Amino acid sequence: MLKLAALALLCTGTLGIFPDGAAAAAIVRAHSPATAGVRPHSALVVFLSGGESELADVPGLSVGIMSAAQGHYSSAQFLLDLTQGARVASSSYPTPTPPPLSLVPAGAGAVIGGWQAARTRAEDAPQLLRPGLLASQIAGGAGYAASTATGRGDEGGGGEGGRGGVTNLDGMLAADRRGHVAALSLGAPATLLARVQALLGRERLVVADLPAGAAGAADLRALSSGRVPGELLIALQRVGDGPGHELLWSAAAGLAGGGGHELSSQSTNERGLIASFDLAPTILAHLGVAIPADVRGKPIHTDGPLRSTSLRALMARLHVIAGRRLKALGFLLLAWALLLCATAGWPRAHRRPQVRAWAMRTGGLAVLWAPVVVLIPAALEPSAPVEYMIVAFGCILLGALTDALMPWPRAPLVPAIVAVVVLSADALAGTQLLMRSLLGPDPILGARFYGIGNELKSGLAVLVAAAVAAALYPSARSRRAAAAMAGAGVLLAVVEGSARIGAGVGGVILVSFAFAVASVLLAPGSLTRKRALIVLVSPVVGLVALAALDLATAGGGGHFTGSVLHARSPADVRDLIVRRYGAAWDALRNHVMPLAAVVALAAAMLGVRSRERLLAPVGGDPAWLAALAGGLAAGVVGSLVEDSGPVLLVVATFTLGCVVSYLWGRPASN
To answer: Which of 178, 188, 446, 492 has the greatest CB tally within 10 Å of its CB?
Structure first.
């Protein structure tokens, strides 16, 4: 009886009796075993060209932004990442884009042309990547349904149309490790939904391409309204190759908590944001299939009510962060330069040195306030010119106010305390201000979604070390002073390393080393082998403490425990190291970074050689010497352990320069 009903539906759909396919889908469901609770859990993944508005308008769907790439986006790589549940930066592959791929019908199913070349490319990447792992874990494989009239173009880098294949490349998501698609259903658009339901009666995972425009939106609405218990429906935005597609819209129905929510995952730890490699573990977990260790993503879950306006604003905000970062810094430095120029022409010559010293102090403090001030436009989401003005004038204003209220040289205490408290509160409260700010992790890059990004790690170390020196001034080498510096280092390591706040393994290493150096320099007595050993071992102690903190507060789901402690073999650790240093090398070659790194190294060497003159305003105070040495150590070690490489050295050196500018602006009364 079921077969006769399905056959009748296919025929009537072909004749156009059900033009939108909704009625056909409803009748197939009425005659399917699922309505009797016989069919086991199933998953349906559909691709459509609509955006957030089309997804949010469908009742029962939860919506989120999906990070579709790590580095350069290509639709073929996006699909490969979906199949393997893991990904690396496009620059980590032998070639940045996958080989030409296509879907070729073969018997009742299909094969992916060029699949072996894609597998070979994945095997040469510095991580165990297994394209097709998702479908291979499901008994019987997966099926793919599409309309012959709406096939996609050659998104894989040149389809294999010359071999007689169709170019519905989204069918790659249904391919197993051999590149085989278990079941293929191609036909008229009017029969698509009926054919999808027929496949769902046989396969536990089905992938489908919905038509473009209103027809696709109508089909998605029909699939959502007709979804049966035990069926997971996932909708993904379909786009072509090119820049600007690193973030895509996605939606799901059938997750715990129901529809009408925002999506999230443990991979991103951000409300409304998921990653492409989260799709495979989500499907496998729903089907009750064990998730292989090679899958690095985490199951998607719902997180809070759906707020479409907020999600669209987040998408727009994430697209502008990278382009505004250096410009905002440039405006801040320009404001400082104008302040210095204005004071150089001060009308009263006898007051000119004091006014110039005030400008040096104010400008130096202004930069130290930047980690806090950038959170203001992150909340307001203004236009670019307004954001630049907020950052520039907000930092200068706070710098001047801090200098007026705090006696020299204690002013760095204020921006340091406020920065640590505000950034921690933002992370714990989930307000997402740092993630949306110009100094945040920049999720559009696809490597980091939450916590303290590399641009802040070494800068915060310099800021906190300077705050300790400011609090101790005038100081003497003593156990008490060394303990104060070490205590501040422990606190900052918790902030930068905790999975709930900073989530930075490299941050723990550089902070532990930097503050160990500063503490040893502040301790009474000479440098001994024991003290040198303490400095060298401090990062290891910090990592052990981080692992314990992750286990206690994040259930072992922190960045460190997830990437290092969960490694299955020395090869996994080796691949992790290769990826990080490969990314660091790429950062060194990026734009003006070679010149900036050379300037930073030269400035650091000059500062070390002229440290007595550098610290003349504070009379060579031991605490300030320790703070500057520790800050430089943070930059050097950070450049060696973080995947942003020289960026951390440049940031640390620049921040140290601002601290020195503040010190050299010593008031005449002091």
So the answer is: 492
Q: Which of the two residues, 447 and 585, has the higher pLDDT score?
A: 447
Which of 2-11, 445-454, 583-592 has the weakest average pLDDT?
2-11
CATH class of 2-306: alpha beta
- Tokens representing 347? 């009308």
Q: Give buried/exposed letters for 136-171 (b at 16+ CB in 10 A, else e).
A: bbbeebbbbbbbeebbbebbbbebbeeeebbbbbbb
CA proximity to 270, closest of 64, 453, 422: 64
Q: What is the DSSP letter of 74?
A: -
* Helix, coil or strand: residue 449: coil
Bridge partner list, 144: 184, 207
Q: Among residues 368, 373, 402, 401, which one has the least CA distance to residue 387?
A: 373
Q: How far apart are CA 629 and CA 178, in angstroms?
A: 56
Whole-angstrom Cα distance, residue 172 to residue 103? 7
Q: Do residues 260 and 56 lie in contact, with contact meaning Cβ atoms separated by under 8 Å?
A: no
Distance between first and last Cα of the chain: 96
CATH 3.40.720 residue ranges of the chain are 2-306
**Distance from C-alpha of 407 to C-alpha of 259, rounded to nearest angstrom:** 56
Contacts of 69 (CB under 8 A, 6+ apart): 77, 78, 81, 87, 90, 245, 246, 276, 446
């990437």: which residue's tokens? 563
Give the separation between CA 405 and CA 315, rounded to whole angstroms: 40
Find tokens 């710098």 and name the residue: 399
What is residue 481's predicted lDDT score, i.e. its pLDDT? 96
DSSP letter at 564 equals I
DSSP assignment of 373-427: HTHHHHHH---HHHHHHHHHHHHHHHHHHHHHHS-TT-TTHHHHHHHHHHHHHHH
pLDDT confidence of residue 240? 83
- Cα gap 515→518, rounded to integer Å: 5
Rounded Cα distance, 480 and 487, in Å: 10
What letter does residue 180 receive in the DSSP assignment? E
3-class DSSP state of 269: coil
Q: Which two tokens stand for residue 598?
A: 């050379």
Mean per-residue pLDDT, 110-136 = 93
The number of residues making up the chain comes to 670
Global pTM reads 0.86
DSSP 243: T
For residue 106 the two structure tokens come to 């073969």
